[in-house]
From TrEMBL:
Gene Ontology cellular-component annotations: chloroplast thylakoid membrane
Organism: Nannochloropsis gaditana
Keyword Metal-binding: no
Protein name (record): Protein PsbN
Pfam family, any one: PsbN
Membrane topology: Single-pass membrane protein
Signal peptide segment: none
Primary residence: membrane
Biological role: May play a role in photosystem I and II biogenesis.
């Protein structure tokens, strides 16, 4: 069994994982900002519009 793991492959794997984590965190932060921040004032509630 050949288990030679070079530092280059570890570095590139760590870089990929870090990039994906940052991307996911950015999407979550943007979604929370749009949902509850200043842009939320422009959102409309279709259920509230049709209440009698």
């Amino acid at each position: 069994m050949n288990t030679n793991i070079t530092m280059d492959s570890v570095d590139s794997a760590l870089l990929l994982v870090t990039f994906l984590e940052c991307l996911l965190l950015g999407i979550v932060v943007y979604a929370v900002y749009v949902s509850f921040g200043p842009p939320a004032q422009d959102l409309r509630d279709p259920f509230e519009e049709h209440e009698d």
